[in-house]
Amino acid sequence: MSGLFSLESWSTVWTHRESFLLGLGNTLQTAVCALALAFIIGAALGLMSTSGSKLLRIIARIYVEFVQNTPLLLQLCFLYYALAFAGVSLGVIRTGIIALGVYTGAYMGEVVRAAIESVPKGQFEAAQAQGFNYLQRMGYIILPQSIPVMLPPMVNQVVNLFKNTSCLYIVGGADLISVTYSFVTGASTGGAYAPAYIVCGLIFFVVCFPLSTLAARWEASLKERKGRVNPGLKTAAKKVELKEAA
Questions:
Q1: φ, ψ for residue 190 (rounded to 5)?
Q2: Could you identify which of 10, 41, 53, 56 might form a hypothetical disulfide with 48, taking C-beta atoms 3.0 to 4.6 angstroms apart as the criterion?
Q3: Is 237 a domain residue?
């Protein structure tokens, strides 16, 4: 039983389709829970990076630089085996959720920081002049303007997180990649390499492609709206200049 065009191989994959669905379910569960953790960490890091406290900015910078400049596989293995040797048994899925959440949170934090910093400083000054405190400035003035900017790159991070769940394979996870490997090396299903990995790849594609397309269109729409606003602002500025000159 081998080869891309082997009907027996494809039949075996179809017969054991529930195994792939189980792997997909575990992957989605891991991705969704890790995403929630990443959002929390990212929001905290973004606010810390743009706060007035130098200490908070330094802490956020150290976290981002350390996490982004060390491999996810290393972080996952360290967390998994460190917890195991410490006598803490969270299981592969929960450990993966923590590792992926911590890793993706660093990138989410940079997205939030960049989005907040994209808001003109005049908005910060105007909010402060109105007597708003930091949380009020962020909640009422800054974040509503920065959310449309941060959404497209956040969607891209969601896609990356979903694909990064494949790293659970290295610690024997029950994700889609791990289930596929177990399938192609199984005693009764071994040998259907090409069909199994093609199906696995198609499942990843079906989930990731719509999200990537959404992010691209969202970003293009945002740039188009900015392009419409900027000429209007320039025209208004020219009119003001002409009136002042007259």
A1: -60, 145
A2: 56
A3: yes
Write down the pLDDT at residue 66.
Answer: 96
Kindly state whether residue 143 falls inside one of the protein's structural domains: yes
Residue 141 located in a structural domain: yes
In order of 162, 221, 230, 234, the CA distances from 227 in angstroms are: 32, 10, 5, 11
58-76 per-position pLDDT tens digit: 999 999 999 999 999 999 9
Are 47 and 138 a contacting pair, CB within 8 Å?
yes
Residue 1 lies in a domain: no
- Please state whether the predicted TM-score (pTM) of the whole model is above 0.85: no
CATH value at residue 109: 1.10.3720.10
More confidently predicted of 244 and 22: 22
- Structure tokens that stand for 104 in this block: 């993706």
**How many other β-carbons are positioned within 10 Å of the β-carbon of residue 167?**
21
* Between 70 and 214, the higher pLDDT residue: 70
Overall number of domains in the chain: 1
> At a CB cut-off of 8 Å and minimum separation 6, what does 114 contact?
149, 150, 153
Q: Which residues have C-beta within 8 Å of that of residue 113, sequence separation ≥ 6?
A: 45, 46, 49, 50, 60
Position 200 pLDDT exceeds 90 = yes
Q: What CA–CA distance (Å, rounded) separates 140 from 138?
A: 6
